[in-house]
Input
Amino acid sequence: MKNRKGWAILMRSRMKLPSNNTTNDNLFNKLPISNEIGLTKPASEGNQMNQNPSSFMQNSERELKAVQVSMHSAVSTSKTDIIDSVLNDFSEGYFSLSFEMRQELLLVLARECDVNRTQVRELIQQYLGLHPPLGEIGQESGVEESLLTAFYRTERNLRHALQPKYEILFERLNTHPGGLKFLSILRADLLSMLAKENIASVRALDSYLKEKLATWLSPASLELHHITWDDSASLLEKIVAYEAVHPISNILDLKRRLGVGRRCFGYFHPAIPGEPLIFIEVALQKNVAQTIKEVLRDDPPTPESEATCALFYSISSTQPGLAGINLGKFLIKRVIELVKRDMPHVSTFATLSPIPGYMQWLLIKLASQTKLAESEAGYTPHRLDGGSGSTFRKNILHKEEEAALMELSGEFYSGKNGMEVMWNLLNSKNYEWTSFERLSSVVRAPLMRLCSRYLLQEKKRGKALDAVANFHLQNGAMVERLNWMADQSEKGLCQSGGIMVNYVYRMDKIEENAQSYFGEGHIQASSDLQSYIESKLQGERVTGEK
Amino acid sequence: MKNRKGWAILMRSRMKLPSNNTTNDNLFNKLPISNEIGLTKPASEGNQMNQNPSSFMQNSERELKAVQVSMHSAVSTSKTDIIDSVLNDFSEGYFSLSFEMRQELLLVLARECDVNRTQVRELIQQYLGLHPPLGEIGQESGVEESLLTAFYRTERNLRHALQPKYEILFERLNTHPGGLKFLSILRADLLSMLAKENIASVRALDSYLKEKLATWLSPASLELHHITWDDSASLLEKIVAYEAVHPISNILDLKRRLGVGRRCFGYFHPAIPGEPLIFIEVALQKNVAQTIKEVLRDDPPTPESEATCALFYSISSTQPGLAGINLGKFLIKRVIELVKRDMPHVSTFATLSPIPGYMQWLLIKLASQTKLAESEAGYTPHRLDGGSGSTFRKNILHKEEEAALMELSGEFYSGKNGMEVMWNLLNSKNYEWTSFERLSSVVRAPLMRLCSRYLLQEKKRGKALDAVANFHLQNGAMVERLNWMADQSEKGLCQSGGIMVNYVYRMDKIEENAQSYFGEGHIQASSDLQSYIESKLQGERVTGEK
Output
């Protein structure tokens, strides 16, 4: 980590920073990986490697068996005085296991500590037997109170019986010191496991645990903390380690992000002290920034009294095991309320966000359409001249864009059509196209237009394909503006050709937007963004007429 | 309240103390009553009383309807931006209702926001349809993964469907400011309602809410706070108001209970700030106190460095709506740990506890046995001379006790037998019997012996009949010693003839005791206590031989 030396000097002591290999979670990574900063690292592997392979296997098996025993005991013991030590044994044992062994263990948990279905079946029969007289429930007239009491009791018993046995383990861990954090790591492992193979019982285990975590991490149980330079080094170290959007390059960078004209807020849970579950970085500005450079490098910053806009330029969640639990929505709402209260002159709340999936989507689109165009050229020549009716081949470029790109062909990048030229250009080494005005000016129009289409129209199960877009839209934001060359870092160019987007949160529209997005998948966008799409429709017509 | 003036002078400002009419909860009261210290009092009744009766009725009906509407809306709305205001409307509306109207409303909640049983029935059919292939669950061999996925999904849906709709209201209130406190008041109302009439759907509602509250108030979410004289007046005022065992008589009394040689600890929930859910008062002493006077009046107190014993002399829970949720167990365990850590020379942890149900039990016993004896005397004279085989008549007094009591007959209290004399003596005005050595010395032996029998042998559903005994026994304490004339206050004499009991907590035995009490109803007692019972058996034999 670049700033390690700076840190050490500043803190006048040697610090152990999480190593660079630590996988930082990114709000936008959909498949989280176990992240154990601050927790004991698997120790056994290193130790055991020195032994011969067969005794290693035996030891591992023995170790796994031991953890399995403590797991079963943690589920089934009724001796409350030993629960704490059993849970400690289990969690310590779990951390000492390799990922493969953890998988084996989780499979055992999913299968052996599942619902008692014999009991469920019995109770269902009992329940159905009591059911008939209950057409009248609600009136309770004519039905004997004692019969009703029996019915309600059976219903409650059935409800309880439908809870898997691992419910007990989860509940116990939740009230055990360090247990909540452990559960989030356990869930991260479940997700890694499910990413490789879909096992129904493990999926059910995961979905159950997710529900429990969501309950325990309700907004009411979370504390909002304004993170400043006065916070402990151990906390700030975690901010550096977990920042997932715009890496913190050195100690000065960190100090600036916590200083004048900046805010950093974290959501903390009392059971996971000293470590935010999610945090957001805010810049106070005169106008909504168009490039990330303005935000990260403005020196001196806008005086706070002149700010009219609060820009959310980075949101990072720290626990891969909390994937799918939307803590960001409440965080953003509370931060808006807080800033509004403290700074009534701030009236605009916007983001400057990456578009992590754009370039990947576009390159696949260009490649597949190019191929289709080629194969069609070979097999169905009568369709080459366009035909807007074709469901297979669609030139996603406008006529003028196609022409401009073909002009580059030969001189810079070769290609049989505009799409292929564009593909080659975007794949050029070191993003060469950004260094030449001639190239970037040609590619700008189609890149911006298709980006708008990607954000507003490309969907998966009714939701925006882009994970960040989906995040802000479900929180009730609208798509406000695309910014050209807004992030010229390696990562920014790779993800989105350097384009960034402003989402805007209007407090009076948040719920309405969120509802119509959630219900009908409707995406609220500014007229600016809309106009790209309209020109696209026009463009297609034009293309079709070519 | 006696100490109001003292308070006001001390705090140099006028304070509104909860009035004497406020019903304080007592851990030992089994039927809690709504307690709304710190909350808006029903306002509507007073206002409406000025109107004519018919418009009063109409207004009340209208009001009830309005609260009902906000309740339904709080259950069913999906607009998260209005939830807060809907919940505010609902809770404010609820507080404005009379108890009768609250009952009506709760009945509506229980019946109309119940489980959707049509959906449950459908899902059960679906579930049973998927069930057969699941004999193999656990192996997942031969069963298609997609079938299993469908099965788990149906099972989860069934689990969800079995949750009543009011679950949503509870969850929403729990995360709403003031909502947890409101739910505890709502439950107190439910309990008052059920004390008058057993309605199955309301009982189910109560049992569901109790489960939820127990989850939310898990020890992990509670904070232990050492309450001192440096705490806010608003907090200390609540200690005065809620002290349920030994009323705090004046400001000096309060100060002493928080001063040298004393400790007061409260369990707080973050969502109910400034008000403990339960608190415990501790005296540090050289020996386990035998009278409450020693505890409340010792001046100067034992120097803390000389203390070897921590005496729990008062535990008060403040929320009637949390009845049946044992917060005391964890509180006592944590306090023992804390005191042990801070004062390693303290090795004995004991209580000095009231026996709230003793005198009531004894008087009923004496009266009924006397009556039985009389009726037997009339109808079955051949049995008058005893007959240990009689299942109806049992002289619960020993031969010597009977004789000593009959000696008093005529001179002080009349009676056909010892039991009747004793009944009359115990019911004498102003506890006259305690003022005369002659009387109290005669009654001491049977009172102590029968008290031991009451504590160790009288049970209800396998649990100790006495509520305080049951509380400490289920927490893992043992019955150590009975103390004669330990509490000579009006309340003490009325409840238990002035007898108090020491329960002792031995850390190494707590779990063992709790388990055997919970499992087999076994009550652990000192040999001292046991000897009373043994002499009782002897006594009965003697009576039988008379």
